Amino acid sequence: MHPAQTASALPTMEKGASVAARKTALRERMRRLRLDQPPGLARARSLEAQRRLMDAPCWRNARSVALYVALKGELSTDSLLDAAWKSGRAVWLPRVRPREPGRMEFVACAGPGQLRPGPFGLREPEDGLPGLGPEEAGMSFRPDLLVLPGLAFDRRGGRLGFGGGYYDRFLDNMPACPRVGLCFAFQIIRNLPLEQWDQRVRYLCTEEQFLCL
Question: Mean pLDDT over all residues of the chain?
Fold first, then answer.
């Protein structure tokens, strides 16, 4: 069965289940679906999704982009990072604030040589590079395009993250900025269980389509 069919066929939880419980169950399902992909198929889908994003006007017109280095199982961002650096765009990457649980900052990064191993299996900008936190969002930190990871999205722009709240806390203080959710097609579901602090995206990009919501 195709992963998209698998996701849509998953049983719905009881109506009385809390939003938190529904989120937890959905995260587990999406992690399993991602890891169940054959590696070659995941690579092919990642390349196609990145190509679609690079063909989109919001990417072509952006002189500065906030990206991320993909974790194992996530849709790869290697082609996006390589293209952004080669084109001379300003590239911002997230870095966890070790003494501030649940908070991160964005760092201007000139290339892969400025990355080092970080928590949760991430590759992050090295410690010596200055970072900008949510207090600078919309001022010193004003990317033309922000590309977000996620475990699931819906067609209303809803996003389900990994549960740490890093992006939700950061973006809560950020003025309007084009936001793209980057994911595999099977990660888009009909309706996400959302809470008032969950941040939304304006676009979705998968290996199958680029959506303006």
Answer: 88
